[in-house]
Design goal:
With 509 residues, this protein is mainly α. It is built from 17 helices and four strands. It has three domains: 120 residues, no CATH class; 246 residues, Up-down Bundle (Rhopdopsin 7-helix transmembrane proteins), CATH 1.20.1070; 71 residues, no CATH class. It starts with a helix and ends in a 5-residue tail after the last strand.
């Protein structure tokens, strides 16, 4: 034991001194176990050649040496105190004690600081995690999880959107519960990995739900006219970008872990992780550009107006002036008539604002993560939990909270299901929804006919699938809307005999 003390303790001195500290005290009953540990370390150090193993052995040896020194000095001080007390009780002269009190005090002080340093070095978080705040966020996400489960899977049938948000909230819960436990087990690698993996992946699930919601919003308004990309491409494109970002971050994390175990510089792995998050920021930047382009096409290009920021804000916030603009310019006539009942719902015109807010919250979180990791695992931001709680936890919480009042079940209706697979046909043209029935009625003869007559006979009618089954009056001829077709010409029917014909017309697939 003396060899271990000489090698690992006497050569160590604290680089900085604290303003105050409490001298450590160790239970004397631990002496037999400590002696056995020291002997085991002595034998292993003598035979071990692997540098990594030697590093951890040296840490254990330093801890054992410091603990044994504190125990020995405690015994010396206890014996001296007993001798002084005995002399005082009998009235004898004060005995001469052959001890160096200054040296003992210094050894106790250095050993205490060494134990504290070794304990702090094992803290994977490099901070004292706040249990109340981490548990508070975990509770918030539990409440959101229950609300999404009720709204999406019990009250309505929005399976994809609800599953995405449920996964996101579940991962956030796991992450902040793990951080709360990590306060008491800050050197546990499994708990550390649980919280960092969960909190890294969770926003990707939230954004997957946002991507899907945007595709539905585009379809409800009419499709190709309002979007650069086909709606059924949007979700897949940006989800693939998020998955690629997560793989890059995972590769960087693995690289950093391997470098750490080999006691090499971990900067390369950290830079790869930063690159993965930066790629996520880039993909979200493109998504926001697509989102605002959709808003521009929806509010201005569709009616031939020049962009105006004031009008945009009124339309986005659905103020009274915004509602008047919609009415004056008759926005509704330029949208898909089969979804008019959805667009007439009270909260529908607020949905673009909800999507923008939720996306910006996650965008801020991703930018923070880039800056945080670029400073390293012991940087200022990552070692000050207030930034983690406000720029990460709070941003994701607000993003998820946005879609409680603006959940698709509330905005669209609980019985509405919109499929993105039927939104676009070949060549980028819009396929009209299956709830629109087409019919053309025309008559022809050898006599010349005006094209107006043919166009007047060419009409389509709008109704629901339920109307078709039940024979609802909604499908009577009075409900037909005229469709002018400039390509119809009497010359095309010149060779036909007199007569009439009625055919059903199906939209080309």
């Amino acid at each position: 034991m003396e060899a271990i003390i000489n090698q690992f303790l006497t050569s160590w001195a604290p680089a900085t001194l604290p303003t105050s500290t409490s001298i450590s005290s160790i239970d004397p009953t631990n002496i037999p176990g400590l002696s056995a540990t020291a002997e085991s370390l002595r034998q292993e150090v003598a035979t071990q050649t692997n540098s990594i193993s030697l590093y951890f052995l040296s840490r254990h040896a330093r801890a054992a040496a410091a603990s044994y020194t504190i125990l020995s000095d405690q015994q010396v001080l206890a014996s001296a105190t007993s001798a002084l007390n005995a002399a005082a009780s009998t009235g004898d002269a004060t005995p001469s004690l052959d001890i160096d009190l200054a040296q003992i005090t210094q050894e106790l002080f250095n050993s205490t600081l060494l134990l504290k340093k070794l304990e702090w070095q094992s803290n994977l978080y490099a901070i004292h995690l706040s249990v109340p705040f981490n548990l508070l966020f975990a509770i918030f996400f539990v409440i959101l999880l229950l609300l999404y489960f009720y709204l999406g899977l019990i009250r309505g049938k929005t399976k994809y959107f609800s599953t995405c948000l449920l996964c996101g909230c579940g991962l956030e819960i796991a992450g902040y519960v793990a951080r709360s436990i990590g306060h008491y087990h800050w050197s546990n690698t499994n708990i550390f990995l649980c919280q960092i993996i969960s909190l890294t992946i969770a926003p990707a699930f939230v954004m997957a739900g946002v991507y899907y919601l945007l595709t539905q919003l585009i379809i409800i308004h009419g499709g190709a006219e309002f979007s650069i990309l086909r709606p059924n491409y949007i979700s897949w494109l940006f989800i693939c970008c998020d998955v690629a970002s997560l793989f890059i971050q995972a590769a960087g994390g693995i690289t950093a872990a391997v470098k750490l175990r080999l006691f090499e510089d971990t900067k390369s792995g950290t830079y790869v992780m930063v690159g993965g998050i930066a790629f996520q920021v880039l993909s979200m930047t493109f998504f926001l550009a697509l989102l605002f382009n959709f808003m521009y096409r929806l509010y201005f290009r569709s009616i031939g107006l020049k962009f105006n920021i004031v009008a945009f804000c009124h339309l986005l916030l659905n103020t009274k002036r915004g509602q008047k603009i919609r009415h004056d310019y008759n926005y509704e006539q330029r949208y898909d008539p089969s979804f008019a009942n959805i667009r007439s719902r009270p909260l529908f015109n607020f949905l673009p604002l909800a999507i923008i807010l939720a996306s910006i919250f996650i965008y801020v979180r991703c930018i923070y993560r880039v800056i945080e990791l670029s400073e390293g695992w012991r940087g200022y931001l990552i070692t000050h939990e207030a930034f983690v709680l406000t720029l990460d936890a709070l941003m994701v919480l607000l993003s998820c909270l946005t879609f409680i009042p603006f959940h698709p079940v509330i905005v669209f209706g609980k019985d509405v299901q919109i499929s993105i697979r039927q939104s676009f046909g070949k060549g980028g043209h819009v396929d009209l929804p299956p709830d629109i029935i087409f019919k053309k009625e025309y008559s022809y003869s050898n006599d010349d006919q005006s094209s107006d007559t043919l166009n007047d006979k060419y009409s389509y009618r709008v109704g629901t699938s339920a109307d078709r089954i039940s024979g609802s009056p909604a499908l009577n001829n009075n409900g037909c809307q005229k469709y002018s077709n400039p390509y119809l010409s009497p010359a095309r029917f010149a060779n036909y005999k007199s007569g009439s014909n009625t055919e059903k017309f199906e939209w080309p697939k």
